[in-house]
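A reminder from the course coordinator: this example appears on the midterm review sheet, so study it carefully.

Given structure:
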């Protein structure tokens, strides 16, 4: 719908955020019609979100992921490898997005942006990175429109997808900083 990013993990299989599927008209946990989404002109044939996503009225951030299938007659998209194990706090990570908001480098929506950060936390099925507060302009952080976008480890393997671009306030040393959150693709419920 122009407000999300995705990562192909197979020639016709993409990961994105479940809230992107809902925003694009997808309802329920799976389906094939009514989804207002196109990649290179191709409409998906179906999608899946975790069973418990959206249950209980909460945002369910650790479950905010969707698998979207495209027709096998469509072009085969370049793919990313999915990591086979979790990363550790302190590891350097790379993120990519096509967000809609102006970034520190002056780019705007629809333009590929990539940058690095460091894992600050790994908890409850999510990775957290420190938000770019302007103090470190080279630090990449998720922007609006990056939802569903990839988080890669140092080997270039996919370890997470963006689910929270606005971040959660965390007080550290008397100062409020922000975190960007990513679904851990190796969390047992997500796998």
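Designed residues:
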């Amino acid at each position: 719908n122009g407000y999300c990013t995705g990562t192909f993990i197979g020639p016709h299989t993409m990961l994105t955020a479940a809230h992107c599927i809902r925003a694009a008209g997808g309802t329920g946990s799976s389906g094939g019609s009514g989804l207002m989404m196109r990649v290179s002109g191709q409409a998906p044939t179906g999608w899946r979100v975790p069973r418990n996503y959206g249950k209980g009225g909460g945002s369910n951030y650790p479950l905010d992921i969707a698998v979207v299938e495209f027709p096998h007659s469509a072009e085969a998209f370049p793919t990313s490898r999915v990591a086979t194990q979790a990363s550790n706090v302190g590891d350097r990570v790379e993120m990519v997005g096509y967000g809609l908001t102006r970034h520190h480098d002056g780019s705007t929506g629809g333009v590929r942006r990539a940058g690095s950060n460091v894992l600050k936390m790994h908890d409850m099925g999510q990775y957290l990175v420190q938000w770019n507060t302007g103090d470190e302009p080279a630090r990449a952080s998720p922007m609006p429109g990056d939802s569903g976008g990839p988080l890669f480890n140092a080997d270039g393997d996919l370890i997470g997808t963006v689910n929270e671009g606005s971040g959660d306030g965390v007080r550290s040393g008397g100062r409020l900083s922000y975190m960007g959150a990513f679904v851990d693709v190796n969390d047992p419920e997500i796998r």
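The longest strand covers residues 158-172. The longest helix spans residues 18-23.
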